[in-house]
Design goal:
By secondary structure, the chain is of the alpha+beta class. The chain has a single domain, classed as 3-Layer(aba) Sandwich (Aminopeptidase), CATH 3.40.630. The protein has four helices and six strands; from the N terminus they run βββαβαββαα. Strands 1-2-3-4-6-5 form a six-stranded mixed sheet, with helices on one face. About 25% of the residues are buried.
């Protein structure tokens, strides 16, 4: 495990990994790292960093606490080496779901995310998204003329 892997991450937590070796978890704003250009990241999105192999229950707890502390966070992104099926399975066991593979200046990654329930409850079908009715504003404009 290299300690500089999480040099740009905050709130580091030292743990014993699922393999019995030391592990670390930390986070940073997703837009603060190389992921900022890899996907449409939101202002409050967080990136989870890790070193070693933290136990999935520790990752899930850390992620839950992070979302509790940041109620405006729409997603926590967990990058793992691209197509590393063991790492993807580990992240999924931690409560994340696979989304996409990306290329960044720091390397190629498979991105997994977890989102709070309020994000998951948002409509995903365009017809279900409430839109502003522009006909009313046009009609009122025409009536003033």
């Amino acid at each position: 495990m290299t300690t500089n892997k999480l040099a740009r991450f905050t709130d580091e937590e030292s743990l014993t990994g699922s393999d019995g070796k030391p592990a670390l978890l930390g986070h940073r704003k997703a837009r603060a790292g190389s992921l900022r250009d890899a996907y449409p990241s939101g202002t409050h999105d967080e990136e989870l960093g890790f070193a070693g192999r933290p136990d999935p229950t520790d990752v899930a707890r850390y992620t839950h606490d992070l979302l509790e502390q940041n109620p405006r966070c729409r997603r926590v992104v967990l990058p793992v080496p691209e197509q590393d099926l063991d790492a993807i399975a580990w992240a999924e066991e931690s409560g994340y779901r696979y989304v996409i593979d990306v290329e960044t200046i720091d390397g190629d990654f498979s991105l997994l995310v977890t989102e709070p329930q309020w994000v998951l409850d948002q409509p995903v079908i365009l017809d279900e998204i409430p839109l502003k009715d522009t006909t009313d504003s046009k009609d009122s404009k025409d009536s003033k003329e």
